[in-house]
């Protein structure tokens, strides 16, 4: 394992396999020094996560990953803080959480219409805590036993190209708005796994136009005072990694890293610590967080 600090990890508060306690236990077992649990679109348990991490002897940074949309493509913005202003994050994410749940209803309707399942939105919702967004993985987990496949397999029905796929609606904020939200709440805003975003743009618009859109995206984010880029991610290919590192240096952006671990069932290909930061870069990130805190 190359990194001691893994700053992109997910629990079952969003679309990970495990509750936060088990996530912490596994992080410690893996030999990590510090982590951030960056669940998608939730402000829940920022403090509880931090306290639990301390109990496990792990350094902790509060984190969140916000789902946004630009060029009809999903772009993820990470927020990191010492102590987020929860009221601001909560108000800022309301539309996204509602949008997600509306999308979940539409997906379930499509599944039912295709006679793939008879589960209802309520069946899925009851397995998820209140104030949490229903993710594709939540639906996949609910229908998997009926289909006699793994949740990961079931999720293919809900992914791009699947019969029950529903894209983000008008409710999705732009990544620029997400940057402002994170910063207003006292955090630093980081572009998550640029390699994944680049891949999506290439797939949608082709090599040349996809590249152009990726550059436009970076420019727009930098104009809107993006604080950092997630460089050390297993989702970044060498070309994107090098290019983004150059951009980070040119604009004095902070560099972050994380594995995007979701558990061995949801994403068996991603292991904790396969992305992340060394002690030296982690200290730099802490300094940036301190300097940007309000
Ligand atoms: Zn992401």
UniProtKB/TrEMBL annotation:
UniProt cross-references to InterPro entries, sorted A to Z: PHP_dom, PHP_domain, Pol/His_phosphatase_N, Pol/histidinol_Pase-like
Domain Polymerase/histidinol phosphatase N-terminal as annotated: residue spans: 5-70
Domain of life: Bacteria
One of the Pfam families matching this protein, by short name: PHP
Record-level Gene Ontology MF annotations: 5'-3' DNA exonuclease activity; 5'-3' RNA exonuclease activity
PANTHER family membership: EXONUCLEASE, POLYMERASE_HISTIDINOL PHOSPHATASE N-TERMINAL DOMAIN-CONTAINING PROTEIN
Protein name: Polymerase/histidinol phosphatase N-terminal domain-containing protein
Species classification: Bacteria, Candidatus Falkowiibacteriota
